[in-house]
Fold this sequence. Notes:
This protein is of the alpha+beta class. It has helices spanning 2-25, 43-47, 77-81; strands at residues 29-33, 53-58, 61-66, 87-91.
Amino acid sequence: MNVVYIGIGAMLLLWISFNLHRRRKNRNKTICVVDSSCTGCQRCVKRCRRHVLEVVEGEAGKRAAVKYPDKCTACGDCLGACKFNALKLIAFYP
């Protein structure tokens, strides 16, 4: 039974260390929407856990837009959800 607890603890520590490393690596990055590639499918908006993206309606139809760039952790979840390569990570310096 102790082996199970040790295995679960090791997996938990690996998961925490991976997330901390990912946050440090992308600390000065945020998401940017490429308007010419965005189709307004809303996959990225649904995938974002931090609610950084929103859908806006403009002249060209519905498009994704960055609502709160300071809340973005650059986790990349929305990048994986976008099938049209309409999102990219850019560096910013506050």
